[in-house]
Each structure stands twice: as C-alpha cells, then as structure tokens.
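Blinded run. Sample ID left blank on purpose so nobody reads anything into the name before looking at the predicted structure. Input follows.
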Amino acid sequence: MRKMTGLGLATGAALGLAALVAPLPAGADGYGGGWHHGGGGDHVVFVQNDNTSGNQVVAYDRAGNGTLTQAHTYATGGLGGVLTGSAVDHLASQGSLTYDQRNNLLYAVNAGSNTVSVFSVWGDQLTLRQVVGSGGAFPVSVAVHGNLVYVLNAENGGTVQGYVVAFDHLVPLPGSSRALGLNPAATPQFTNTPGQVAFSPDGSQLIVTTKANGSDIDVFGVDYRGYLSSAPVVNSEPGAVPFGVTFDQAGHLVVAESSSTTPAVATFALDHNGTVTQLDLVPTGKAATCWIAPAGGFLYASNAGSAALSGYQENSASGTLALLGATGTDPGPVDAAASANGQFLYVQTGANGIVDEFGVNPNGTLTEVGSVTVPGAAGGEGIVAF
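Blinded prediction complete.
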C-alpha cells in the first residue's frame, strides 16, 4: 500500500510540475550570449569566475563606447571546478552561465559542488534565490526554454537533469534524468566530457555535444510535459569534436568543431526526427576552435589555442558561411557574449582571466575597445551580456 501511495504522489507531483511547462513560440527562451536579449539587465555584462575557493559572478556596467566598469561581485554559494587536463577552460564547456529571459533569472553552475545557483536580475544587481543540486556530477552547462531548464553534468559518463521554474526556484522534474552513456575513463578529461546542452528554438528538441567522447551531436526529443525521449538520436561526426553551439536566425544549428586536424565552424539543418544534415563547413585556420557566439548578424568562434577569434558571415537562408578573417585576443579565448544591440562583443580569455572588449563593425570586423581583468577568473568560463 505504501508503494502504491508513493507512486501516486510522485505521479501527481510530476503532472503538477509538467503543467508549468507551457508551450512557447520559437525564441522565447534563455541565452548565454545568443541571439536573444532583454529582461532584467540593461547595459550590463555578468562574468562567472569559476573559482575553486568560492565561485562568483562579477557584474560590469557597460558604457556607451562598450567599455566595462566593475560594479558588484556576487558569491554563488558553491565552488568552481577544474577538469583534468584543462588550462584556460576549467569547465571545458559553453553555457555555464545562462540567462532566463522569461523568468528574469540567471543560472550559474558550481562544478566543484555539484550545484546550480539561481539569481534574480535587476539591472546590475543580483539576488541569490536558491542553490540546488545539479542531479549529477560536475555541472557545466544550462539550457532554458520557457519554464523548462535542463542541466548538463559532465562526469561519470554525463547526464542531463530537468527542472521546472516555479517562484524563482528550480524544482527537479521527477524521472527526467537521462544518462549520455559516454566513456567516463576516457582521457584527457577536459576533451572527453560533454560540451554543451541547448534547446532547439521551438523547444521541441534538446541538443548535447559530446566533444571527443564519441564526437557526436546527441538530440533528444522533448514532449509537452518537458520530459526527454528515453535515448537521444546520436549523430556521429567522426573526428569533428563538436563543442559549442548556437542557432542562427533561420533555426539552423551552428557548431564550433575542435578537430585536431581541421578546426572549423559548421552549420546543420535539424530535422524533427533528431537527425542533422550538414549545410556547410568552413575551417577557422586556427587551433582549438571550441566556442561560438553570434553578434550583430555575424558569428564569432573562439580559438583557445591561437589567441584569436574567427569571424563569419552567414547566409541564414542556406546556412552557407564565409570566413571574414581573424582578430587577436589575450591568451586563451573561451566563452563570448554580445550586447543586446549587437554592437559589442565580450570575450573571456582564460589564461589570465581577462575579458576583451570589441566593437562589432558593419562589415563584421572587430575593433578592440578595451579589456578588464576579472578577479579570480583565470581558467573561468561563463558570460552573459545585455
């Protein structure tokens, strides 16, 4: 009788939480430096330092010329983490700091504590609302669509865990955890753990990149309750090492591929059945192409091994790419995010914990306008701009 009662309560709770997952139009989601902007921040950039002695989010005010001034520092209530083998990118991921536009919340992973921090946003001010378990080991990336959030945990073969947003908190969605089934013993760890979790623009699919551990783009179906398909469609990209992703304005998947032989940016059509079809691939000509960010209608890939950004112009209708050239950065460029108006691009550089500040010109070239050193952020990742 107890088992039946427990099952009934669990089922009722799941149905109640799932009722909060309302369908949304394409684009009504969160971002960690993507095409979508708005909400609680204004002329602000938030940077996560991933410090192992105490993770922090540092808030910067943006001047009219794009330069940044430090305003506040907020403790997440958790610890940063370091994957073995990493140098400038201790989380080796994209999307570790993610803004929830609908609910005006900021999510920060605490990889060293296996938790996620939830902040409400008001201008450059954050209020810590919750620190919640990530549902796995070493969280590295967060995706949000409407009231539905999924967290990617990198260790022990990788898992994704679902949550529903309610009253500025993340409530775990019972039975939503899915194992990725990656090889947990593969080394080095920082190239063999999953790189990012992201929703498709309409929220009907969840994408996970596996980097060198399979070199796959995994695509889960998402049902109306927020639950994932029992297993993903595995799209193998041998040798490509898919890492960071974004979507263009036509809904094509854009992937930074950190191949050891041909680092590149690739575009894909994402089918409703979970398969991807490559539309174009253009090498960066640089090393360790891992992160990708849109800004001002252009795409910029961070090349951690070359201290450079590669700029691309895309025909979003066809998904074809044209390489615009490279722009130098401080050593170890990783995560990047654009201002709401697309006029400025902010790039974390992990070697010395510096954020480089660039103006985005009408032809897609970049002009450096300054830089700031983020306290305790060497090796840190996670940036959101407004």
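Unblinding after everyone has recorded impressions. The first helix runs from residue 2 to 18.
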